[in-house]
């Protein structure tokens, strides 16, 4: 059972986006400037982001008093101010390819808010970033850090990076400066052609203790994968060597155990920090595949549901040519929430063991 969880509410063109977070312990210092900075990161690289300009100023409604969490549910809202909805009335019967318009219409019997994707919109990730901020504050108490960067944009991939390089880099998007320059060119080409491009985000967590998680229902690796897949546009997740395990023999894949500075570690980290559904104490390494923005300016085939005929659609509006840069704090937030939840669960066991042993 989760100790730390959140619920998102709101729609892309509604009055506000919001999140309710439960399970954050009392006494954690909250700085609204830090939270605002996290939301600023979600705006991505302006040149390749939507022309929709939202201030994204968080308003904390409950759960924080005199700069510290109270231990009660935390509610935060962010207003939608730069909304232009008229165009969506024109295309309400023509589902946009790559979006959730059609299945949402079926699921909600046509009562759903279809403007800008409504509740399905990537704008709801504002709430994940907010919840992730509070989770990071929990992890901070234990020296655990989370960092995500752009691993790939289209055909351009960053070189293999050490954990130290990832965390010490001053580039907020990708530590591999040369590759990042080429990535920008790919994003620019997509923008100019009215198209979009996808990529891969790599997320790393360090100083995570061994023993978080458990087998089957308690599997922390499964919980992380589930958290990542809840992010709109995520179409793939892997840990460590991931799909490359299918090419290897056991002698190549296994991570030998060794002792360094009086601690048990593994010589390699092919498994990305997990064994048996539990953390090993090694850095957690995850890769998250982000599909290209489905809203593009090129003509696409669709159907008119009202008239039940096939037709072409050419979207108008304000779209991102690449959403990968703005996904970084969202992926970090999703990872931090799961790690903080499992850390709180583990602390309950440790507390019980200490009480039992009298220590």
Describe the protein:
The chain is an alpha+beta fold and 359 residues long. The chain has one domain (5-357): Chorismate synthase AroC (Chorismate synthase, AroC fold, 4-Layer Sandwich). It is built from nine helices and 17 strands. The strands form six sheets. Strands 8-7-9-15-10 form a five-stranded antiparallel beta sheet. A four-stranded antiparallel beta sheet has the order 1-2-6-3, with helices on one face. A two-stranded antiparallel ribbon has the order 4-5. Helix 1 crosses helix 4 and helix 4 (125-140) crosses helix 9 (324-357). The relative contact order is 0.17. The model has no long low-confidence stretch (mean pLDDT 95).
Count of DSSP H/I helices: 9
Q: Name the CATH superfamily classification.
A: Chorismate synthase AroC
Strand order of the largest sheet: 8-7-9-15-10
CATH topology: Chorismate synthase, AroC fold
The CATH C-level name is Alpha Beta
Proportion of residues in extended strands: 15-25%
Question: Termini distance?
Answer: 27 Å
Structural class: alpha+beta
What coarse outline follows from CA principal-axis ratios?
Answer: globular
- Domains, number: 1
Percent helix range: 25-40%
Overall average pLDDT:
95
**Low-pLDDT stretches:** none
**CATH architecture assignment name:** 4-Layer Sandwich
The total strand number stands at: 17
**Largest sheet features:** 5 strands, antiparallel
H/E element string? Answer: EEHEEEEHHHEEHHEHEHEEEEEEEH
List the defining traits of the structure above:
single chain; 359 residues; alpha+beta; Chorismate synthase, AroC fold; five-stranded antiparallel sheet
């Amino acid at each position: 059972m989760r100790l730390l969880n959140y619920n998102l509410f709101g729609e892309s063109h509604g009055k506000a986006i919001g999140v309710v977070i439960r399970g954050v312990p009392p006494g954690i210092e909250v700085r609204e400037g830090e939270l605002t900075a996290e939301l600023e990161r979600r705006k991505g690289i302006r040149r390749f982001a939507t022309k929709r300009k939202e201030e994204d100023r968080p308003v904390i409604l409950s759960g924080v008093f005199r700069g510290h969490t109270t231990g009660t549910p935390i509610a935060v809202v962010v207003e939608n101010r730069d909304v232009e909805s008229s165009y969506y009335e024109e295309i309400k019967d023509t589902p946009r390819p790559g979006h959730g318009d059609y299945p949402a219409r079926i699921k909600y019997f046509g009562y759903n808010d279809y403007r800008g994707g409504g509740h399905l919109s990537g704008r709801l990730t504002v709430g994940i970033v907010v919840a992730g901020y509070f989770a990071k504050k929990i992890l901070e108490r234990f020296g655990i850090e989370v960092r995500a960067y752009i691993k790939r944009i289209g055909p351009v991939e960053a070189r293999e990076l050490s954990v130290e390089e990832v965390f010490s880099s001053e580039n907020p998007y990708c530590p591999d400066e040369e590759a990042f320059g080429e990535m920008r060119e790919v994003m620019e080409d997509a923008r100019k052609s009215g198209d979009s491009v996808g990529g891969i985000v790599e997320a790393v967590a360090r100083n995570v203790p061994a023993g978080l998680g458990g087998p089957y229902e308690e599997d922390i690796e499964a919980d992380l994968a589930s958290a990542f897949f809840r992010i709109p546009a995520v179409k793939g997740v892997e840990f460590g060597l991931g799909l490359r395990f299918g090419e290897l023999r056991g002698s190549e894949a296994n991570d030998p155990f060794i002792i360094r500075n009086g601690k048990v570690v593994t010589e390699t980290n092919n498994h990305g920090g997990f064994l048996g559904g539990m953390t090993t104490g090694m850095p957690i390494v995850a890769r998250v595949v982000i599909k290209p923005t489905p809203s593009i300016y090129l003509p696409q085939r669709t159907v008119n549901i009202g008239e039940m005929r096939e037709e072409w659609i050419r979207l108008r509006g304000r779209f991102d040519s690449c959403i990968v840069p703005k996904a970084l704090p969202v992926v970090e937030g999703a990872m931090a929430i799961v790690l903080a939840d499992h850390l709180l669960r583990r602390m309950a066991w440790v507390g019980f063991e200490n009480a039992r042993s009298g220590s």
